[in-house]
């Protein structure tokens, strides 16, 4: 599972990214501005120097055996600026006049470029592995190119400076971004401190389940203050609704418990009287033999049997409702340490009297020997009876089998059947109250409350149940209970036998 990024980290990354982007733009702009400014200023200096020297250039014709030769003369380069190299070259004779700082180095030029451009231009060349920027100014006499005046500057120092500046800007930007991330991480924690306060306060309210508690926020009425006020209003509303629901639920539970308790007495009376009348009618039926009243007595017997069956069903329903009402009312079960095998043997013995049409077998019950659980014996027996009786009800042929399995500190009670089974849509509802599978409605007796009661008993004993079922092929219920581990304090043990 991917861990969620916190708001604190997102804010730190967001502001650091913005700062890094701003520094990147600033660094690039500063670098190219300085590069443009320095080289543009240098070009102006070279051009101005050339224009100044050009004024002192003199042209002289001399007669030689080969004819007239043109000489370009310059008395000195006194006006040459510091660090600037000057050179005048006679195109026809190749004679060169240089500034004193140029020594034996010749500044290169292209005659073709001079003839094409007819005006000054810049060129970058490498002389003895050093970069030079040269301004080439053609010397024109009577419309003819006679020489070139060059001014050069060694730009190696400038390029080294720009390279160092680039490295410094990069390192400084990285340092500033990292420092900003660190400071932002620290200050964002302080800025989000009220938010952490709200989180802890809501967690405490959730864990305590006391919705009457309010968030005691004393900070400024900013966004956090507004959120705190809104949450308090929501808690007040929830507390009010929860109180109303709790009161309504308590009233409903009391009504169900009272009604169930009150209904047990008349139902018992109805059932007892109906059974008494059944016995009386059977006695009269035997005495009357072939008299005409015999048929009327048979009809009365059928009616009384129906009354008895319905009163018994109502009695079971009332008992189930009473159990659920007690569970909803927060009934605390007083549990003691019991040996599991006698409890299971009692349930197995009584299960022999449950009406059934399939084989009933119990396997490897000896594996329960020496296994103790912390339980309420009567409820544990009721739990097993519910699952076994449920298996008998929905199994019309085949078998119902009970097995046992131990897994670490848990003991499993497995009930298998070859009954009608269920599909996945039905499985998720089998522990809901009054739910019965569609295929069983009207075919088998029951109220749909048995498994709900079993689930409550199982929860009270820290147990779990695993259900596997296939439509038309049967079901498997695995009931897992924690095994009681002996501690240094001796607790009373019970055999589990009644």
Please write out the topology.
Elements: H1 7-54, E1 58-64, E2 67-73, E3 84-90, E4 96-98, H2 111-117, E5 121-127, E6 130-141, E7 144-154, H3 156-191, H4 193-208, H5 223-288, H6 293-328, E8 336-339, H7 340-351, E9 359-362, E10 372-375, H8 377-393, E11 399-407, E12 410-417, H9 424-427, H10 450-460, E13 464-470, E14 474-482, E15 493-494
Parallel strand pairs: 8-15, 9-11
Antiparallel strand pairs: 1-2, 3-4, 3-7, 5-6, 6-7, 8-10, 11-12, 12-14, 13-14
Helix pairs in contact: 1-3, 5-6, 6-10, 7-8, 8-10
Overall description:
- The protein starts with 6 loop residues before the first helix and ends with a strand.
- The chain is rod-shaped and about 165 Å long.
- It has a five-stranded antiparallel beta sheet. The protein has a five-stranded mixed beta sheet with strand order 9-11-12-14-13, with helices on one face. A three-stranded mixed beta sheet has the order 10-8-15.
- It has ten helices and 15 strands.
- The protein is about 50% helix and about 20% strand.
- With about 500 residues, it is of the alpha+beta class.
Helix content: 40-55%
> Which parts are unreliable, with pLDDT below 50 for 5 consecutive residues or more?
438-442
Summarize the main sheet: 5 strands, antiparallel
DSSP strand count: 15
Overall mean pLDDT? 78
Order of strands across the main sheet: 4-3-7-6-5
Bulk shape: rod-shaped
Structural class based on helices, strands and sheet pairing? alpha+beta
Report the radius of gyration as a whole number of Å.
Answer: 53 Å
The percentage of residues in β strands lies in 15-25%
Alpha plus pi helix count: 10
Distance between the termini: 52 Å
């Amino acid at each position: 599972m991917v861990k969620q990024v916190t708001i604190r980290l997102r804010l730190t990354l967001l502001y650091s990214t913005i700062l890094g982007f701003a520094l990147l733009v600033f660094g690039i702009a500063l670098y190219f501005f300085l590069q443009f400014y320095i080289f543009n200023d240098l070009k102006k200096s070279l051009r101005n120097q050339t224009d100044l020297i050009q004024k002192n250039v003199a042209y002289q014709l001399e007669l030689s055996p080969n004819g007239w030769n043109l000489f370009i003369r310059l008395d000195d380069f006194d006006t040459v600026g510091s660090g600037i190299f000057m050179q005048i070259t006679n195109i026809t004779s190749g004679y060169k006049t240089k500034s004193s700082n140029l020594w034996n180095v010749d500044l290169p030029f292209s005659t073709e470029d001079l003839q094409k451009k007819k005006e000054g231009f810049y060129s970058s060349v490498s002389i003895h592995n050093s970069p030079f920027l040269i301004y080439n100014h053609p010397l024109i006499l009577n419309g003819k190119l006679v020489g070139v005046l060059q001014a050069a500057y060694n730009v190696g120092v400038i390029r080294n400076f720009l390279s160092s500046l680039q490295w410094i800007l990069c390192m400084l930007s990285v340092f500033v971004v990292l420092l900003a991330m660190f400071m932002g991480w620290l200050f964002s924690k302080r800025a989000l401190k009220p938010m952490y306060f709200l989180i802890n306060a809501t967690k405490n309210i959730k864990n305590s389940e006391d919705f009457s508690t309010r968030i005691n926020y004393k900070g400024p009425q900013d966004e956090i203050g507004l959120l705190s006020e809104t949450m308090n209003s929501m808690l007040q509303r929830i507390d009010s609704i929860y109180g109303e629901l709790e009161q309504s639920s308590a009233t409903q539970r009391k009504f169900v418990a009272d009604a169930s308790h009150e209904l047990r007495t008349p139902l018992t009376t109805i059932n007892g009287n109906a059974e008494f009348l059944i016995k009386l009618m059977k006695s009269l039926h035997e005495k009357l033999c072939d008299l005409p009243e015999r048929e009327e007595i048979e009809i009365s017997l059928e009616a009384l049997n129906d009354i008895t069956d319905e009163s018994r069903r109502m009695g079971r329903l009332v008992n189930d409702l009473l159990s659920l009402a007690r569970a909803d009312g927060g009934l605390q079960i007083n549990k003691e340490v019991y040996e599991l095998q006698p409890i299971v043997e009692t349930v197995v013995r009584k299960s022999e009297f449950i009406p059934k049409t399939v084989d009933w077998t119990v396997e490897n019950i000896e594996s329960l020997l020496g296994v103790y659980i912390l339980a309420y014996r009567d409820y544990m027996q009721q739990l097993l009876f519910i699952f076994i009786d449920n298996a008998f009800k929905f199994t019309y042929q085949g078998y119902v089998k009970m097995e046992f399995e131990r897994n670490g500190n848990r003991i499993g009670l497995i009930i298998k059947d070859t009954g009608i089974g269920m599909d996945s849509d039905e499985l998720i509802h089998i522990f809901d109250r009054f739910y019965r599978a569609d295929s069983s409605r009207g075919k088998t007796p029951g109220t749909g409350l048995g498994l709900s009661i079993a689930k409550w008993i199982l929860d009270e004993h820290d147990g779990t149940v695993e259900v596997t079922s296939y439509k038309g092929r049967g079901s498997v219920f695995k009931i897992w209970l924690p095994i009681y581990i002996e501690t240094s304090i001796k607790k009373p043990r019970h055999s589990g036998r009644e």
